[in-house]
Specification:
Blueprint: H1 5-10, H2 13-21, H3 27-35, H4 42-53, H5 58-66, H6 83-95, H7 104-121, H8 134-144, H9 149-171
Helix pairs in contact: 2-3, 2-6, 4-9, 5-9, 7-8
């Protein structure tokens, strides 16, 4: 769901919010980004996106995390209920393309690691999957399972920042 900087700055709030949701599903973040318009350039968009993210609380972060499919799970192809959700699903499929070459054993281990992670931390395992193989994502999940809850929440939040940045760059390219 591409858009120009002018569209981001000038389109009605409702339309902009739908598009921003595909990059980060936190309502507070979307409201902050919408209120920060107009932006001079992509660098300002990216800077403001990160600044706003780090001002949010844990519940806002978890709201954004919950919009992501598990690593290794396919987001629904056409079952999205809004254009923003459809764009987010498209982003996820592209980002998780490293899973495509994984064998059944790696997929099974990744599914088990996802479940262990969610049980331990209470939210989906989040990693910026772009350019990572299934094995890399699995290894990172297993390493992160040893983290304290507060450390892992910050680690997942940092991964969300990376994902949001990549999605904003693609959307505004």
């Amino acid at each position: 769901m591409k858009m120009t900087l002018d569209e981001l700055n000038e389109d009605p709030l409702f339309d902009v919010a739908k598009r921003l949701r595909s990059t980060c599903a936190s309502r507070a973040w979307i409201e902050g980004m919408s209120a920060s318009r107009p932006f001079d350039d992509l660098a300002e968009v990216l800077c403001e996106a990160e600044r706003i993210w780090w001002t949010l609380d844990e519940s806002d972060w978890k709201e954004a995390f919950a919009a992501h499919p598990r690593i290794g799970d396919s987001p629904p192809a056409a079952a999205a209920t809004s254009p923003g959700e459809d764009a987010a699903a498209s982003f996820s499929r592209s980002e998780q393309s490293g899973i495509a070459d994984a064998g059944p054993a790696v997929r099974a281990r990744l599914a088990a690691a996802n479940q262990a992670y969610e049980k331990r931390y209470g939210f989906v395992y989040l990693v910026c999957a772009t350019d990572k193989s299934a094995e890399e994502m699995l290894d990172q999940c297993l390493r992160r399972l040893g983290s304290e809850v507060h450390e892992e929440l910050r680690a997942a939040a940092a991964e969300q920042v990376k994902i949001t940045r990549l999605r904003l760059e693609k959307m505004l390219a």
